[in-house]
Structure formats: C-alpha cells, structure tokens
Amino acid sequence: MGKLALTSLAVAVLVLTGCSQKSPEVDMTKGTGDTKGASSDGMSALQKLIASLEANSKTIYFDFDKYSVRKDQQSNIDANAALFNSAEAKSFSIKVEGNCDEFGTDEYNYALGLKRAKSVKDGLVAKGMVADRITVVSYGESNPASTEHNKDAWAKNRRAEFKVLP
Amino acid sequence: MIKKFVVFLCLAIFAYAGDATVEIVKKIDVLPKIAVQDASPKNVDVSSRQSFYKLIAGDLRVSSHFNVLDEYLQSSYEGGPLENFLSDKKVDMILRFSLTQDINAATVNVKLINAKTGVTTFEKVYSITDKRRNPFLAHKIVVDANDQVGAPSVKWMEQSVIFARYTEAKKSEIVISDYTLSYTKTVVTGGLNIFPKWANADQSAFYYTSYSGADPTIYRYDLKDGSRKNIISSPGMVVCSDVSKDGTKLLLTMAPKDQTDIYLYDIQSRKITKITDYSGIDVNGNFIDDDKRIAFVSDRLGSPDIFAQGIYDKSFEKLVYHGKNKNSISTYDNYIVYSSREADSEFGRNTFNLYLISTKTDYLRQLTASGENLYPRFAKDPDTIMFIKQFGNQSALGIIRLNANKTYQFQLKTGKLQSIDW
User: Which residues, listed in sequence order, are joined to residue B93 by a DSSP beta bridge?
Assistant: First the structure.
C-alpha cells in the first residue's frame, strides 16, 4: 500500500427524475367564470342594481383581535339591515366577507375573519333580516383595503364587507 | 485522523440573512473543515458553476456538520498534489464537483477527498433530467457527503416545500420549491388558493383550499398526472390542517354552520366526524399520540391557546401554560412547535416568536427572539423546523436547526408567504 493507498471506489450513477411530474399547472379561474348578460355600457340593469346596493352598504370595522361588533358600528349594522330589507334588495342574498389585518397568516386569522362576518350576520338578523338570506365567508388577511403598514391601514383592514348575490 | 478545530458557533450567517435563536451559543465543537472545488469543464458557463458552488457550500453550512471554507476554488477533476491537499487552507476534506449540462439535463461528478492523505474516499455520478431542478441535485450530493462523515442525516434537504403566496388582494398561487427557494414551480394559479398540505409521505399529491367556487373547497391535486379531485366544501372556511401518517385521514377546520370546528375526514369512506364543539374559534388540528388524539388552537379560555383532546373523547386539556396568545402549531410525535404573539399592539408591529414543547414533559424552548415568526412546520426530521418570517409585504422561509441552534432565512423574491408545508 502506497502513500495514496487505494480505497474502494464506489462509483454510482443516480438519476434524479424529479418525481416524474408532468409539469401540471391549473388555473382555478378557467371554467369557473361568471356568465353575464351585459348591456351596451357593459352592465345589465341587474348588475347596476347590485353594484348600487354594494356601494351603499356600510363597512363594519372591528377592534384589534376582536370579533364583537363595536358600539360605534351598530348604526352601520342598522343601516345595512334597512338597505338589504328594502323592496329593491329583498330578493337578493347577502354574503358577508370578514377580513383581518396583516398580523398572522394562519388558520386562526381566517377563523377570526369568519367570526367577524358571523357577528355582523347575527346583528343583521337581530334587525329583522332572514338568516337564510345571509352567508358568511372569511378572507383572512388576503384582502386588505389598504396595503400600507401603519395603524390607520390596519384599522381599515379589520372589517366586514358585503356582496349582493342574485 | 481528522485534525480538530475550535469553532465558535454564534449567529449563523449564510448567503442570506441570518436570525439569532434565543440561546446564543458560544461553544467549543469539533467540525471537519471542508473546501468545495469546482472542477467543471471550461465550456460550462461561469454563472451555472458558481451557482452550483453556492448551493453546495450553502447546504454544507445549513447541515451544521461542517466548517465550510468560504472561498470559491477551482481545480481539475483528477486533481494534482496541490489540489488534493490544499495544505495552505488547512482543510480536512474536499468536496470536488464537475457539472456538465445540455439543453435539459445536468450531470455532476462528485468526489470526496481526504485532504490529509489525498485519497478519494467517495465518488458518485449524479444526473437529473430537468436541470432547473439542479438545487435538488446539490441537496442530494450534500446529503450523501454528510452521510459519508457519519453525521446525523440531513435527508430533510431533499424534501420538497409547498407554499401559497399572495400576489394581490384575494389572489394567491401554490408553488413547489426546494427548501432554499432556489427552485420554484407554480402549480396552481387563479383566484385565492391557500393552505397547501402534502397528501402523502412521497409528496406526490397535495391538498389545498380554493375560493374559486360558491364556497371554499378543498381539492386534492395529483402531481403524477395533474388530476384534481374535489374533496369537500364548506361555507365560511375550510382548511386541511393535517394528514394522518398513513395518509387515510384528514383533520379539517370547517364551518358548515358559520362556526369553525375541527373534523376528522376519512378519505376512503368520506365519513366526517366532528371532533370539537365550541362556540368560539377551534382551528389548526394536528394529530398527536399515534394519531389517537389531536392538538389544536382554540380561544375557549379567552385568548388563542393550545389544547389537546382525544378524537372520540370530548374532554380537553390545556397543553401550554407559557405565553398568552398562541396561534399556530405543528406536531412531531410528542413535540409541539408553536407561534406565540408576544404583545397585543394595535399601534405597532407585533412580535411573534416560536417555542418548542414536549407533551410528555415540562420541556420548553424559545426558538426565535424578534420579528414576526409564523407558521412553524416540522420536517420529517424533528431536528429541523421551517417557518415563515414576515417583513411587511415581504417574507422569507426560515429554517431552524435545533441541535446546532442555528437559524437560516431564504427570501421569497415576489409575493408574500401565506402558508407552508414540507
């Protein structure tokens, strides 16, 4: 055995095929888009009414890490209940969307958004809306009203908004 | 015989930003000093060679089992007396690689050389059919080199990471990557797609929540054939929080009656069993104790905390008595890692730190010291934890090596991380 004594030299070939993936990519918007009967200005009368109702609804804001409706927001709940119970809106369903600030990106944050939406739904029902007309959903921190990073932006993002569904 | 070196391990600094764990360690340890030599043919472009060098050197550092010479060296593949000993560098061993590539594929010849004797102790040829996946090639090489010196396995480096990243309001994509984010491949786009979770140990399928339909829906996506299967929908929210070891059962957070609770879902029978029943927030179920019980997050005592209960037993117990606001957990056998909000600040940035506990003892260890450290996830190896580090609209993947007490971060180039799994 010399200075550079030979060690057993294992030469192996390893082929890494990378899970033999087929390069799949799915676009979740394909095949799920809404069909719309648009007028010449791009919106049907129904769409205009829905847009008007949504624009006239009042956003409900929440305290940090809380999901109970603040006293100063109760008048907005009352106004929304009156709006959604009006003759022109009464045939529509209402979806309440709960949202959170940027702190936290976990299930708890989504659940917090859902509890906010549920508190608003309960408030609307207490003001005479039929519960079956109202659905709730949480967007967690995914749908900020403001993308700035300051206390005013965070306060704007802790909110519930409304979608009117035909 | 390998010469012993004194290494002071403090804050780890990789090619990326570092983060201190709370236990700042200044210890005397013995790590083999290793040099990485690039022996690639001259016709291989310099950027590819240097990128591969950085991957190898980075992996060796993250393994925490080597003292890596911080110098890009070139050599011939056969090596001469100077190249095989590197006497002036005072290294114990040399990892030499030769990278060759064609349009699609890549091949790497690798040698591990004892720099004290000049003897090649290990040699292997690695190839990959898609050179975009070169980072996985580098990780495999380092896993093997690490095994050669008898160090604890770092096979976790070969795991694929899956994550969701926000791209704009109500929009996010699902991406598969390596742990350094050097390789990324977007697999789901369009609308809001969140909470991806690997469906099995071989990472050939995953679950995720899509908001593309009337209600949030969990899909199972098979990477082998690109097929997608609707698993379950729920009003409000629905998340696949955990998958049983055998892949046959899921823990779901659902809100069929506007109220989040944790449910067990049997893949074969499609049977759903409600596990928790509370009027507040119950989320983030994780299997523990051989999948017989679950740990979960609940605000049933006023603020989010960690509890455990049997799957068919409604009595629950609080698992953690430290801290006040724990909002995300991951489990590995009897260990739980969780994120805890340290201050309830409405007016400034919040601090979230990670902690590790045992369900069997009073063991508690703080893993991070500052910033927003979220969404911890164990690797298949309980010595390694991945987490999300947030900086405003930017984020990074963090890797904690528990035994070495080191943390590394890998910056996400675009978008903001929503959730991760690996």
Answer: B34, B114
| Length of chain A (residues) | 166
Where chain B has pLDDT below 70, the residues are: 1-29, 344-349
Residue B380 to residue B378: CA distance in whole angstroms? 7
A70 or B341, higher pLDDT = A70
Type of residue numbered B338 = Y
User: What are the residues facing B96 on neighbouring strands?
Assistant: B37, B111
Rounded to 10 degrees, what is the CA torsion of B110, B116, B118, B122?
-30
CA–CA–CA angle A45, A123, A49 (5° rounding): 5
Instruction: Give the residue among A33, A87, A6 at the shortest CA–CA distance from B123.
Output: A6
| Among A13, A135, A143, beta carbon nearest to B127 | A13
Do A28 and B260 count as a contact with CB atoms less than 8 A apart?
Answer: no
| Whole-model pTM over 0.90 | no
Q: Please classify residue A85 by burial: count the beta carbons closer than 10 Å to its beta carbon, then call 0-12 exposed, 13-18 middle and 19+ buried.
A: middle
The pLDDT value given to residue B321? 82
Q: Is the pLDDT of residue A40 over 70?
A: no
Close Cβ partners of B263 (under 8 Å, ≥ 6 residues apart): B251, B252, B253, B254, B272, B273, B274, B275
Cβ–Cβ gap A28/B347 under 8 Å = no
Inspect the interface and report whether the beta carbons of A24 and B187 lie closer than 8 Å.
yes
- Give pLDDT, residue B29: 60
pLDDT the model gives residue B12: 36
CA-based nearest distance B61→chain A, Å: 23
Q: Are B65 and B146 in contact (CB under 8 A)?
A: yes
User: What's the pLDDT score for residue A41?
Assistant: 63
Gap from A102 CA to chain B (nearest CA, Å): 8
Average pLDDT over residues A112-126: 97
First to last CA, chain A: 88
Interface predicted TM-score (ipTM) of this complex, two decimals: 0.86
Q: How many CB pairs under 8 A join A and B?
A: 201
pLDDT recorded at residue B20: 41
Measured between beta carbons, the chain B residues lying within 8 angstroms of A146 are: none
